[in-house]
Design brief:
The complex is a heterodimer. By secondary structure, chain A is of the alpha/beta class. Chain A is built from eight helices and 18 strands. Classes of the chains: A alpha/beta, B mainly alpha.
Chain lengths: 320, 177
């Protein structure tokens, strides 16, 4: 499936309405289906309801979603292979062909204290993956010091465009640019969101010199890449689990550079995370990039250096 | 006069062989039914392995399972796999049902057996792997049971049908002579 063919993710009932709406794929950010409630979409930063005839309206005017529609959408999203997403569904989301992420809610079935599965799915949030070439180009010069890429942490609340910016940074670093020569970038793509790999083939462009470890847990993936692929930069999405601690320190101490993202709207937010708090406290990161919220995904708000001094502020322009 | 005799003889031969043909066809259908249930049981065993243990995608698993089959069940699996890849987004239940009804000749299975095969879709597209494994095993058992019955039916009725058709043919020939 091509990245643009998001319609193939939807069941025939919804496909017709989306086709009739002739939406700009690049502006369509998210599709929400909730049983018994109207279908809503986030389009160009705003929420709309999509009517059956393909017209955008107020949220409450959207197509009424039934349990069957939700189930059919889930079947369609997984290529009728729900069982293949068993492990991911236990975490409440799955990444489907094309690198799109789908959040799932419903009745959680427990086996002891472990989640066995989610049955009676009542809601889906399809977050469409976007590849926006050069969206990180203006950010790149701030992340390079004396021809060396700085250890960088990109922060934003959910839906802020971290993954899109990270993906473009990987591409720019792997291809090389006027600011820095091309580097070997090892990518640990735990949720198949960065490369959007399908049957082992990356569907997003991550550049010439990128090596993608698809579907591998971050901690193991970083160690494997260090041992096997001699990366100059290691890129990971959504860092913060305690499991990653050892591997992250390995990356810092072996001469490799780390490019990572984390959930949070400010440094004080992520200080509360034990791993990230420690890393910030020890001044391991040399650059912090703070992105906007879901209203303005991918917009760079501020860039700080390792000492937390302001290098760039969107409202003031470059300061340092 | 000679021509009349020859024509009569030819007509009787045709009658006899058509009776024999009917009998052999009925016997062949009984054998095909048995074969179809055996293959259905094997298919669910392969699908259990591919889906539950290897986590293969449904279309890949179905294509793999269709290899080596010699009944119309392989056409059902290939059709479903194609619909998964290129379909218009219908539910799996619909896709499976349509494929079963269009690819399996009506004379081969009884209505309840066709319904049973249609209901097997729930075992192939399920979000709970434990439940799916149970359903796949249940289908294997069901089709194993059906294949045993069909085998018995074939052994009991197959030769009987053939012999009856020969006897019927001979009877008609004698009657017309």
């Amino acid at each position: 499936m091509e990245q643009d063919n998001y319609l193939a993710l939807l069941p025939s009932k919804l496909r017709k309405s989306f086709l009739a709406a002739c939406l700009d794929r690049n502006k369509l950010q998210e599709i929400r289906l909730r049983t018994g409630r109207p279908l809503t979409i986030r389009y160009d930063g705003r929420e709309y309801g999509l009517k059956e005839e393909g017209v955008l309206g107020r949220a409450e005017e959207g197509i009424a979603i039934t349990t069957e529609t939700v189930n059919e959408t889930l079947e369609q999203l997984t290529g009728y292979s729900l069982y293949a997403y068993d492990q991911e569904m236990k975490q409440g989301f799955l990444t489907v062909e094309g690198g799109h992420r789908v959040g799932i809610v419903g009745k959680v079935i427990l086996s002891g204290e472990q989640i066995q599965c989610i049955r009676y799915v009542s809601g889906l949030n399809i977050r469409l993956s976007h590849q926006i070439p050069d969206c990180a180009r203006e950010l790149l010069p701030y992340l390079i010091q004396e021809d060396i890429f700085c250890h960088t942490l990109i922060l934003s609340p959910p839906g802020g465009g971290k993954t899109t910016v990270l993906r473009d940074l990987i591409r720019l670093l792997a291809n090389g640019s006027e600011w820095i020569a091309g580097k070997n970038v090892g990518v640990v793509d735990e949720r198949s969101e960065l490369a959007g790999s399908y049957h082992g083939k990356a569907q997003n462009d991550l550049g010439l010199r990128s090596d993608v470890l698809d579907g591998c847990p971050k901690a193991e993936g970083m160690t494997m890449l260090l041992r096997s692929m001699a990366p100059q930069i290691i890129a990971v999405d959504e860092l913060g689990s305690e499991r990653d601690r050892h591997a992250v320190k390995n990356v810092f101490y072996c001469g490799c550079r780390l490019l990572a993202t984390a959930h949070g709207s400010s440094l004080s937010d992520i200080r509360k995370n034990p791993l990230l708090g420690d890393l910030i406290g020890q001044r391991m990161f040399e650059r912090y990039v703070l992105l906007g919220n879901s209203e303005t995904p991918g917009r760079i708000c501020r860039i700080l250096d390792g000492e937390e001094r302001l290098l760039f502020d969107a409202q003031q322009g470059r300061s340092g | 006069m000679d021509l009349y005799l020859w024509l009569k003889l030819g007509g009787l031969c045709c009658l006899f062989f058509s009776c024999l043909g009917f009998g052999m066809d009925a016997e062949r259908n009984l054998k095909l039914r048995w074969r179809l249930f055996v293959e259905a049981k094997d298919v669910f065993a392969i699908l259990e392995k591919e889906m539950i243990f290897h986590h293969a995608r449904a279309d890949d698993a179905l294509k793999l399972a269709s290899g080596g089959l010699c009944t119309c069940l392989s056409e059902v699996l290939i059709e479903v796999a194609w619909q998964i890849e290129h379909g218009k987004g219908e539910s799996f239940e619909q896709i499976w049902k349509m494929a079963v009804k269009s690819r399996i000749p009506k004379y081969l299975l009884k209505t309840e057996e066709t319904e049973l095969l249609c209901r097997a879709s729930s075992a192939l597209c399920c979000s709970d792997t434990i439940m799916q494994k149970t359903l796949l095993l249940q289908n294997q058992e069901r089709f194993a049971h059906l294949s045993d019955s069909a085998k018995k039916e074939y052994q009991e009725k197959g030769s009987l049908v053939r012999r009856l058709s020969v006897a019927g043919g001979v009877f008609l020939v004698i009657l017309l002579l």
